[in-house]
Amino acid sequence: MKTYRVLIGVIAVAVILTASLYLFFRSGEGVVKFSIKPKEVDLMADLEAGAIDYLFIYRSVAEQHGVQFVELPDEINLSNTTFAENYSKVVVRRADGGEVRGKPIVYGVTIPDRYGPSDEERPYAEAFVRMLLGEVGGGILSEAGQQPCVAYHGTPPPEINGTDPSPPSKEITLRVVHAGSLSIPFQRLKEAFERRFPGVSVNLEAYGSVMAIKQVTELHTNASVVASADYTLIPELMEDYTSWYATFAKNSIVLAYTEKSRHHEEINRDNWYRTILRKDVVVGFSSPNDDPCGYRAVMVMQLADLYYSSSIMKVLEERTGIKSEVKDGEYLITVPEDSRLMG
């Protein structure tokens, strides 16, 4: 009986190993491993530590962290309005059923009407947004690699373009929830704002943009300011919570790496899509369910397949369950739940 149990155990282990080997070798180009986390800034630490080799990330974040990167062609990097029609052929369907169409990368900001700042806090929330959209914010964003582009949508409160409030009579704290890729410029903006308004403290909370918005729309916690790396998420997810938003900066997707990255000596604009498919390479991107950088990374991979006739999406589906299909002349990418995606 004991021998029989041992034999069964050996067979079970053999089956598991065989299945694992099958998963590892089933791609004809070698199997790339993907590392997926909720926010792209979480993965930057992994890149700098050498835990991953390459990272799909905003150009601004790569510049802020001083890492090297491959600048991808405008046809696929989501930066150029000239190629907006090409970008729009790719649609990502998140696990929650929401769909996002490819478009040039533009950030948005709003002040919630529901679950927003208190009456005492609101003038200072408006002042924070006014500083972001003005000369001070524009300079900070430019230095961070994010090109300012201010435009208002909906019905912003007149006070947004008004005069600054007087210093508060008592301590006030603003809660600013924002996309992780805004962490560095918003830290500098916070410092400038607190110098201008003694007695007002700004608490910054970085999330993936979807999760930042859900702090208000699902968790129903009050936020003074909400800033998203995809401006379209504000009218899509906050329709019942705000009547306006402003766009304020542009960006692009790059492929970041360091001297610790495998094959970094040879990667370039012409071969990057082959390099990331090498079997010893680990590629990172944030969750498409939680973070615009994540679904934009997947869009870039789909656009790269079309541009280079590569097979990135095939390998991505095998390793993560993210599926791509052609539907009515467009490419629909379906993302599974995070429990599977990051499992």
Structure, described:
- It is built from 13 helices and 15 strands.
- The protein is an alpha/beta fold and 343 residues long.
- It folds into 2 domains: 28-99 and 253-341, 3-Layer(aba) Sandwich (D-Maltodextrin-Binding Protein, domain 2); 106-250, D-Maltodextrin-Binding Protein, domain 2 (3-Layer(aba) Sandwich).
- Strands 7-11-6-10-8-9 form a 6-stranded mixed sheet. Strands 1-13-2-12-3 form a 5-stranded mixed sheet, with helices on both faces.
- Strand 14 (323-327) and strand 15 (330-334) form a beta hairpin.
- Helix 6 packs antiparallel against helix 7.
- The protein starts with a helix and ends with a helix.
- The model is unreliable at 1-30 (pLDDT under 50).
What would you say the CATH architecture of the largest domain is? Answer: 3-Layer(aba) Sandwich
Distance from first to last alpha carbon: 36 Å
- Helix and strand string, N-terminal first? HEHEHEHEEEHHEEHEHEHEEHEHHEEH
Instruction: Give the class from helix and strand content and strand pairing.
Output: alpha/beta
Radius of gyration: 22 Å
Instruction: Give the tally of structural domains.
Output: 2
List the helices and strands and how they pair.
Blueprint: H1 2-25, E1 33-37, H2 40-49, E2 54-58, H3 59-65, E3 68-70, H4 84-87, E4 90-93, E5 99-101, E6 106-110, H5 122-133, H6 135-143, E7 147-154, E8 172-179, H7 183-196, E9 200-207, H8 209-217, E10 225-228, H9 233-237, E11 244-250, E12 253-257, H10 272-275, E13 282-286, H11 292-308, H12 312-320, E14 323-327, E15 330-334, H13 338-341
Parallel strand pairs: 1-13, 2-13, 4-15, 8-9, 8-10
Antiparallel strand pairs: 2-12, 3-12, 4-5, 6-10, 6-11, 7-11, 14-15
Helix pairs in contact: 6-7
